[in-house]
Design a protein that fits this description.
Rossmann fold, 8-stranded mixed β-sheet, about 650 residues, alpha+beta, Immunoglobulin-like, 5 domains, about 20% helix, 11 helices, 5-stranded mixed β-sheet, single chain
């Protein structure tokens, strides 16, 4: 054993005054008494005393000297040399990805074992070593700068948590490699189960990392796919799921499906080792639902060490393409071009000779100067209707005498629509109690819209060719607003959901003030609706999120989306041998040349000194207890006057 601060042994000189205090005789207090006859012998003994006495055995003296010795040893910082993984300037990368929650190691999870390994590295570091701790999760982040402060490193390790996503090893290795600048002895230490993906961000001049392997088993079964597909024509959606067995033994599983948290379906099967099991659901889901969740269960003999991938979520996915049925009496090139230029719109042109509508349902019906025998039950855009219907009544043709204005600027249909330069030859008067005039001329409404019998209807009671509207910039804006009003596009287009850590691109509606996102744990994030797209990055939790559009404090649109762990690199928890890890074009070093670290014991010395100090305090206060008449001191006579008789004898 050696000492880092041997000069502290000079403090042992404090033992000298302690010994002297115990060798000095007591200074007795003078008291006036009526007679010294009975005290004569005591006075003679006092006169013979000297200031010093021979040192006798004393428990308090022994405890105080032992406390002093332990404190001096603590100040001297005793240590022994032990083998260590690395020394010098160390970038310590700790894997905090989802696979580290696997429980195949003794005493808990892989992450707990990794923390313990990191603590040993910190405990054995030399005084001149510096360590930077980097947490490798879905976002790689340095937790400490390069420091020799063990307490700071221990606090960072104690506050570290594991994530639910894949580790960003490219960024982590780039951060670690940046620490090599100006360092004579630099090394990178990775504590991981080997799931580093295709990390190649290590420069060629950086030494290959030292890998501390974590993990023992590959047994894991995971849900690797879950999706719904809506069919055209309003048909019920179909469900598809897939389960993968990454272990070396066959697994019997059951997949339980819940619609809006209500149990509805279940499928069972046996998955061979290292195989996938597609689970198709032949029948469409006829019941209405918004969200769907799947839970994986096993028989008693199945081994599954990773629980995060035993659940998955998805939302009902409608057909993204809006199917529009279009009929024009005279043919309208302006209208056809506008419909075909809009994204997500598929136009089907009907026959004007056939007044009957197709059997298949459409998302929107556009009729220009033409109406069927029976109006459809869906949303409709009517342009220049030729006759009255049960929904509205037509009046005479009118010639506008003044400019056309937007009368409902707060409507999403008229957002960013500028009609200052619009001119109109004639417009037909139209009466519909359920419709709101959005654009008006002095004599009649130019655009009306509203909802009746659970369908949305918009009417332009004039022929587009009788105006210059198709030549204005406002025309494509108005058509796009109308299509979005009939069938709003998804705020977040997510056909297959998200993975943990993915960036979410949000397209807020034009009139939205803000967006509110509620995470699975209930945490709420609000984003101001500024710009055409917003970025949401807090997708670190597994489960269902709720996105709400706020306008004037009211929720005008809502949508759910799911975040799942569909990552083979995380669900495949097979520990990777060090030789398989390719970093920066070379193999990762299995072990560096044997180096020496220091293991100090000053904390043990200090704790022992505190314990002895408590014992010394107890002994001292026990001796201060004064004997009483009924409770004499041990070894003394029952009554004090008995001692006086014996002395006189």
């Amino acid at each position: 054993m050696s000492f880092l601060a041997p000069a502290a042994f000079a403090a042992l000189a404090i033992a000298i005054p302690i010994l002297l205090l115990y060798m000095l005789r007591l200074r007795r207090r003078e008291v006036l008494i009526s007679s010294t006859f009975l005290w004569r012998q005591v006075v003679q003994d006092t006169e013979a005393n000297t200031p010093w006495q021979r040192l006798r055995r004393n428990l308090l003296l022994f405890l105080q000297l032992l406390i002093l010795l332990l404190l001096v040893l603590a100040l001297a910082r005793p240590f022994i040399t032990v083998p260590t993984i690395s020394a010098g300037k160390i970038a310590l990368l700790l894997d905090a990805s989802a696979s580290m929650t696997a429980t195949d190691v003794a005493g808990g999870s892989r992450f707990a074992a990794a923390i313990e390994q990191a603590q040993q590295i910190v405990n054995n570091m030399n005084p001149r070593d510096t360590i930077s701790l980097i947490r490798v999760a879905d976002v790689a982040e340095p937790l400490t700068a390069y420091t020799a402060d063990k307490n700071q490193l221990r606090r960072a390790l104690a506050g570290m948590s594991v994530s639910h996503g894949a580790g960003d090893w490219d960024t982590a290795l780039t951060l670690a490699a940046a620490g090599a600048a100006g360092a004579e002895n630099f090394s990178i230490v990775m504590i991981t189960d080997g799931g580093v993906g295709a990390a190649t961000s290590l420069p060629a001049n950086i030494p290959q990392p030292i890998v501390v392997p974590i993990g023992e088993s590959a047994d894991n079964v995971a849900i690797t796919a879950l999706a719904t597909r809506a069919l055209a024509g309003g048909k019920p959606p179909q469900l598809f799921a897939q389960v993968t067995n990454y272990g070396a033994e066959a697994a019997e599983i059951s997949l339980v499906i819940r619609l809006d948290d209500v149990l509805r379906l279940s499928r069972s099967g046996t998955i061979p080792p290292r195989s996938q099991l597609p689970i198709p659901f032949d029948e469409p889901i006829s019941e209405p639902f918004e969200t769907l969740s799947a839970v994986l269960t096993f028989d008693n003999d199945a081994q599954d060490f990773l629980a995060l991938d035993n659940r998955a979520w998805t939302v009902r996915n409608e057909v993204n393409t809006r199917r529009v049925y279009y009929v024009s009496q005279m043919g309208n090139l302006f209208l056809e071009q506008a419909l075909r230029s809009l994204p997500g719109v598929q136009t089907f042109r009907g026959n004007v000779e056939n007044r009957r509508l197709p059997a298949d349902a459409f998302d929107l019906y556009v009729f220009d100067g033409w109406l069927p025998n029976t109006l459809p039950a869906g949303d409709m855009l009517l342009i220049n209707p030729p006759n009255s219907t049960p929904l509205f009544t037509l009046g005479p043709l009118l010639e506008p005498s003044d400019e056309i204005i937007v009368s409902a600027e707060e409507s999403p249909i008229t957002a960013y629509v500028d009609l200052d330069e619009m001119s109109l030859l004639q417009v037909r008067e139209l009466n519909a109690a359920w419709a709101q005039p959005l654009i008006q001329a002095p004599e009649a409404a130019v655009l009306l819209a509203g909802e009746i019998n659970a369908r949305q209807v918009a009417i332009l009671p004039f022929d587009l060719r009788d105006s210059n509207l198709p030549l204005l910039i406002a025309y494509p804006v108005l058509m796009a607003n109308l299509i979005d009003w009939f069938s709003p596009a998804d705020i977040v287009p997510l056909p297959d959901g998200l993975s943990v850590g993915d960036l979410l691109q949000i397209s807020p509606p034009l009139l939205a003030d803000s967006l509110r996102i509620t995470a699975p744990d209930g945490r709420v994030t609000e984003l101001a609706a500024e710009g055409e797209t917003l970025a949401y990055t807090d997708t670190g939790q597994l489960g269902l999120y709720r996105l709400e559009v706020l306008q004037a404090g009211e929720v005008t649109q809502a949508q759910r989306f799911a975040v799942n762990l569909f990552a083979t690199g995380e669900s495949d928890i097979t520990p990777r041998p060090q030789a398989e890890l390719q970093l920066g074009g070379g193999q990762a070093a299995a072990q560096a040349d044997e180096q020496l670290g220091l293991r100090e014991f000053w904390t043990l010395m200090a704790l022992a000194a505190l314990l002895l100090l408590a014992i010394e305090w107890a002994v001292y206060h026990r001796r201060l207890q004064v004997p009483t008449l009924l409770r004499a001191a041990p070894g003394s006579p029952r009554f004090p006057w008995a001692r006086l008789r014996n002395s006189s004898a």
